[in-house]
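Researcher: Please translate sequence to structure tokens.
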Amino acid sequence: MAKLVAAERTGNTQSSRNELRNTGKVPAILYGYKVENTSVSVDENEFIKVIREVGRNGVIELDFDGKTTQVMVNDYQFDSLKNKIEHIDFIAINMDIERTVDVNVVVVGDAVGTKEGGVVEQPNFTVQVTARPADLPEEIEIDVTDLEVGSAIHVEDIRGNFKFTIEDEDDYVLATCHIPAEEPEEDEEAEEAEGEETEAASAEEDEE
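Model: Translation complete:
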């Protein structure tokens, strides 16, 4: 389990938060299971390393005030213009109580239907998963190797493959394979007629 050090944050004004960000720290809030709502800060680079290691739904050991608390990232705000993390919400969790989170779905493999001109599409990119924090997956891989043209993979097709529970309906579509619709060919005669009409109109304007 990845570890992250947090420091108590006393000031809560906009200027104090900006000052923290200028020193490479991120303002954050810690709340949840057996903890009081506490303003904290963490090092931005260390936080990024931890998230890359454990994933968006991973459990982090937050070292704060002389003790370690198991937390998850409930939310965080990212400023794309500044390319900086603006704020983080850490929620303390009970490792024995299940949680429901969104998990990314990743398609892997080369579908057999592509040999017949089919194209694989992924209509939905996340599913809702319920499990104890330690059992929550970072992502779910869907193997489309056996997917034929006109076929699809639904939640019901993969539901029994994992220890965790997928909350979405059985008919929730994860991947399809189909022949792309052909674009209608341009009618050359219609194009020629349109061109002649345009030329005639231009000639009439010139005569006027």
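Researcher: Any highlights?
Model: The longest strand covers residues 67-79.
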